[in-house]
Every structure is written in structure tokens, then in C-alpha cells.
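Let us practice reading a record.
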Amino acid sequence: MSGHSKWATIKHKKGAADAKRGKMFSKLAKEITIAAKSGGDPSMNPTLRTVMQKAKSINMPNDNIDKAIKKGTGELVADVLEEFTYEGYAAGGVGLVVYVLTDNKNRAAAEIGHIFRRNNSDFATRGSVSRNFERRGQIIIEKAAAEEDALMEIILEAGADDMITDEMGYEVLTQPNSYQEVATAIENAGIETLSSEVGYLPMVTKDMDDLAKVKSLMKFIDALEENEDVQNVYHDAEISDELMEQIEE
């Protein structure tokens, strides 16, 4: 999940994933390979299980998933993947943290830098943007998937920090080191999740109420996420569902 406006942002990202499924397969294969380094058995590795669920949700072939797991466990030769982030600002002072997973850091830096400059921006000093974000586990669940009191009991017993409820559903928040236990407890209860990951969440958000600026921001983010080395883009913009829906029209 890459923004504070949960529901519309997820809808936007899912639409993009459907349109570029082959590229999503490649990105998810990298995530699976990294997750499988901690163990190739999904029943013993909740992070791997979560990424596999994400892959299956867009109909990624089982052969692709199995190959990615074997690369992570060392059964197949794999490129050495590096994880790192780039930071910068979009129009209106919106902070961006770009999470990258690549086998060629120089290529990634050149291509992502070009996208920034094409959108009238550039990389910011490391830490200048990310200091306004925190690493948190975030699990998004639709309203129909769970009963609020029962879900609250499950996640608190598993070590979650908080649960935010609105008319669309639930946002479960955890510390990174308790994410796997909470995610496993939710899965064991048979509750389906819409989105589940450890990512960067903004501590303070910036309200955006200008449609032109929102369109510019989403164009920038979409261009970044189209890059093969970019796994996710996190931002601190607060965008209403109504404005996001106008973008989709």
C-alpha cells in the first residue's frame, strides 16, 4: 500500500496491475525470491506466504512462483538482488520514498533519476523525506471479510498496535517485528486481506484538493512504478476517494 488514501489507492494500483500483468509477474518474482531466502516453505514463512497470495491474486503461474522460490533457497541460480530506497518530492511538496529491488544499481539510479527529472524533480538527500515516514506493518481488510470485535481480539492477541475502522473496512497496524505473527493470526482465522505488507507510512500527511495536482502526482507515481526495478512508491499525500475516482474516469 503506497498512500494514505487506502481504498481508492488500492483500486488504482490493482487496475494498473491488471493492465501490466507481465511486468507485475517480474516484480513479484523478485519479492518471492527475497522472501524465500528466509525459508522456502510458505507454511513456515508468513512473508513468503503473503507475497505468494499477492502473486496468485493476479494469476501468476505456479511455475513462475516455484522458480522464484527456488532462486531464493539457492536451488536455482539467481541474480544478486539489492534492496534500497530513493527519496524526493513531487509538486506541492509531497514526499516520495521509492523502494527498489534490483540486480543493477547503476541502471536503476539512472532510470529512476530520469523519471524524477522528467517530472520536474530530483533525488533528495537521503533521510530528508524518509524521516517523515515510519516502517510499519499494514494489513487492509474489507468490511465484509470480518466482524470488527472478533478481528480486534485476534490482532491484539497477536501483537498488533492498532486497528483503524471506517465504512470500507479495517486497517491493522503493527511494528515490523510483529507483522508476521499478526498476518499469520489473521490468515489462520480464515480472514481474507486486500493488502498486506511492511512498508513506509507517513507520520504526517499533506492534504491535496486540486485535481490537476493530484493527476500530476499520480502520473509521476505511475511512471516510477512502471520501472522494472521499482517495487513500490510511498507518499504522504492525503487524497480523497472522490478525487481518486475522478482520475479513474
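A brief commentary: The two ends are 22 Å apart (CA to CA).
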